[in-house]
Design goal:
Length: 115
């Protein structure tokens, strides 16, 4: 009685094996690039440079710098808005760098595989 299914000899065909190796290599490369991205810092400013926020590629705020002239006890809302704007811009920059890295890794496949 003949065996059903599987591959002759129990192994993967050559091109499937090559695909697996290529996928593993790509995964290692993506992990290395992700680690590198996580060490980068992204700085954004608001209010003409009066507020500066620094975030890492891990999307962690590591620094908030305020100019003395922007600290007005009578206008806390403006300071809050400036901090929020600078933080959001820095996070957007980190997202953009991540998307660019992914695009390079996937060769323009849209972040996925065509299957």
């Amino acid at each position: 009685m003949a065996k059903r299914g599987g591959f002759p000899g129990g192994g993967m065909p050559g091109n499937m094996n090559n695909l697996m190796k290529q996928a593993q290599r790509m995964q290692r490369q993506m992990e290395e690039n992700q680690k590198e991205l996580e060490t980068k810092e992204f700085v954004a400013k608001a209010g003409g440079g009066a507020v500066e926020v620094t975030v890492t590629g891990k999307k962690e705020i590591t620094k908030v710098k305020l100019s003395a002239e922007v600290v007005d006890p009578d206008d806390i809302e403006m300071l809050e808005d400036l901090v929020m704007a600078a933080a959001n811009e820095a996070l957007r920059m980190a997202d953009e760098a991540n998307a660019e890295m992914m695009s390079k890794m996937t060769g323009g496949l849209g972040g996925g595989f065509p299957f």
